[in-house]
Amino acid sequence: MADGTGASPEQMAAFARSASEASQQLTSLFTSLNSNLATLESQSRGQFAAAFAQVKSTVATESANMNAALGAIAQSVGQAGVNYTQGDADQKSLMTNVEGTTTGITSGLVR
Fold first, then answer.
1. How far is CA 67 from the centre of its chain?
2. CATH no. of 10-110
3. Cα–Cα distance for residue pair 98/92, rounded to 1 Å
4. How far apart are CA 45 and CA 4, in angstroms?
5. What is the pLDDT of residues 58-98, one digit of tens each?
6. Greater confidence, 110 or 53?
7. How far is the CA of 50 from the CAs of 34, 37, 44, 45, 53, in angstroms?
8. Element (H, E) at 7
9. What is the pTM of this model?
10. Domain of life, per the record (predicted)?
């Protein structure tokens, strides 16, 4: 792997899976939290109810943003691993072709 990355395609794939799992866990956590707070929300009145609704909306927006970011990171890192693996295979194929071509040239010099 190139010196600039320091991660193998396998590590990239593992990280992508971890980011996806974290996103799913956060979604589950916020769903559970909202479910647990439903009773409080239904019984709240006045300024508390308005403030509670605002906080709930902010949490929903921020958790959606975080999930979107985690999803994008997972997808990008996963694709980077795939691209690296494909690029490595392409380079190997090219070098095999070069080796085949140069073997023919150099074999004539050895005689």
1. 11
2. 1.10.287.1060
3. 10
4. 57
5. 999 999 999 999 999 999 988 888 888 888 788 888 888 77
6. 53
7. 16, 14, 9, 8, 5
8. none
9. 0.66
10. Bacteria
Please report which confidence band the pLDDT of residue 5 belongs to, taking 50, 70 and 90 as the band edges: low
* Overall average pLDDT of the 25-32 stretch: 92
Phi, psi of 7 (to 5 degrees): -135, 145
Question: What per-residue confidence (pLDDT) applies to 97?
Answer: 79
Contact between residue 13 and residue 78 where contact means Cβ atoms under 8 Å apart? yes
Cβ-Cβ contacts under 8 Å for 9 (sequence gap 6 or more): 81, 82, 84, 85
- CA dist., res. 61 & res. 66, Å (int): 9
Residue 108 has pLDDT above 90, yes or no: no
Cα(74)–Cα(14) distance, rounded to whole angstroms?
Answer: 9
